[in-house]
Amino acid sequence: MTGPQAVALPSAERRAARRASLRPASLAVLILLIAQLGLGVGVNLYVTLPPAGQPGHSSWFGNGTLLATHSALGMILILGAVLFKSGRSWPGA
Asked: Which residues in 58-83 are b (16+ Cβ under 10 Å) and which e?
Protein backbone atom coordinates (compact mmCIF):
# COMPACT_ATOMS: atom_id res chain seq x y z
CA MET A 1 0.00 0.00 0.00
CA THR A 2 1.00 3.64 0.18
CA GLY A 3 2.18 3.64 3.81
CA PRO A 4 0.90 5.25 6.98
CA GLN A 5 -1.13 8.38 6.52
CA ALA A 6 -1.56 11.19 9.01
CA VAL A 7 -4.86 11.00 10.79
CA ALA A 8 -6.52 14.35 11.43
CA LEU A 9 -7.41 14.91 15.04
CA PRO A 10 -11.06 15.58 15.76
CA SER A 11 -11.91 19.13 16.64
CA ALA A 12 -12.30 18.51 20.39
CA GLU A 13 -8.96 16.69 20.63
CA ARG A 14 -7.24 19.43 18.64
CA ARG A 15 -8.62 22.12 20.99
CA ALA A 16 -7.55 20.14 24.05
CA ALA A 17 -4.04 19.65 22.66
CA ARG A 18 -3.76 23.36 21.84
CA ARG A 19 -5.02 24.33 25.29
CA ALA A 20 -2.52 21.99 26.93
CA SER A 21 0.35 23.51 24.94
CA LEU A 22 -0.71 27.08 25.73
CA ARG A 23 -0.87 26.61 29.50
CA PRO A 24 2.91 26.46 30.07
CA ALA A 25 3.44 29.35 27.65
CA SER A 26 0.83 31.44 29.47
CA LEU A 27 2.46 30.68 32.81
CA ALA A 28 5.87 31.66 31.43
CA VAL A 29 4.49 34.96 30.12
CA LEU A 30 2.82 35.65 33.47
CA ILE A 31 6.08 35.07 35.33
CA LEU A 32 7.93 37.30 32.86
CA LEU A 33 5.31 40.04 33.30
CA ILE A 34 5.75 39.95 37.08
CA ALA A 35 9.53 40.15 36.65
CA GLN A 36 9.07 43.02 34.17
CA LEU A 37 6.95 44.88 36.70
CA GLY A 38 9.64 44.53 39.35
CA LEU A 39 12.38 45.60 36.95
CA GLY A 40 10.28 48.57 35.82
CA VAL A 41 9.86 49.73 39.40
CA GLY A 42 13.60 49.35 39.96
CA VAL A 43 14.42 51.30 36.80
CA ASN A 44 11.99 54.04 37.76
CA LEU A 45 13.45 54.38 41.25
CA TYR A 46 17.17 53.84 40.75
CA VAL A 47 18.27 54.57 37.14
CA THR A 48 18.98 58.13 36.05
CA LEU A 49 18.84 58.84 32.33
CA PRO A 50 20.79 61.75 30.79
CA PRO A 51 18.85 64.90 29.83
CA ALA A 52 17.19 64.90 26.41
CA GLY A 53 19.46 67.48 24.78
CA GLN A 54 22.72 65.96 26.00
CA PRO A 55 24.74 63.92 23.49
CA GLY A 56 25.85 60.43 24.37
CA HIS A 57 22.61 58.51 24.46
CA SER A 58 24.65 55.33 24.07
CA SER A 59 25.46 55.61 27.77
CA TRP A 60 21.87 54.78 28.74
CA PHE A 61 22.73 51.14 29.16
CA GLY A 62 25.93 52.08 30.98
CA ASN A 63 23.89 53.08 34.03
CA GLY A 64 23.63 49.47 35.02
CA THR A 65 22.25 46.18 33.97
CA LEU A 66 18.83 46.98 35.40
CA LEU A 67 17.76 49.09 32.41
CA ALA A 68 19.26 46.67 29.89
CA THR A 69 17.53 43.71 31.55
CA HIS A 70 14.24 45.62 31.64
CA SER A 71 14.53 46.41 27.91
CA ALA A 72 15.52 42.87 26.93
CA LEU A 73 12.68 41.35 28.94
CA GLY A 74 10.27 43.74 27.24
CA MET A 75 11.45 42.50 23.85
CA ILE A 76 10.99 38.89 24.96
CA LEU A 77 7.45 39.69 26.11
CA ILE A 78 6.65 41.29 22.74
CA LEU A 79 7.95 38.15 21.00
CA GLY A 80 5.83 36.01 23.35
CA ALA A 81 2.73 38.06 22.54
CA VAL A 82 3.32 37.64 18.80
CA LEU A 83 3.85 33.89 19.19
CA PHE A 84 0.79 33.59 21.42
CA LYS A 85 -1.37 35.52 18.95
CA SER A 86 -0.14 33.46 16.02
CA GLY A 87 -0.94 30.24 17.88
CA ARG A 88 2.61 28.93 18.05
CA SER A 89 4.38 27.78 21.18
CA TRP A 90 7.72 28.93 22.55
CA PRO A 91 10.75 27.64 20.70
CA GLY A 92 11.92 24.45 22.33
CA ALA A 93 8.65 23.94 24.22
From this structure: eeeeeeeebbbbbeebeeeeeebeeb
DSSP 1-23: -----PPPPPHHHHHHHHHHHHH
Which residues are CB-contacts of 59 (< 8 A; sequence separation ≥ 6)? Answer: 50
- Number of compact structural domains in the chain: 1
Domain containing residue 31: 22-45+61-93
pLDDT in tens, the chain (93 residues): 565 666 655 687 877 777 777 778 778 888 989 999 998 888 888 777 666 666 655 555 556 677 788 888 999 889 888 877 776 655 555
Residue 15, in any domain of the structure: no
Answer whether residue 14 is part of any domain.
Answer: no
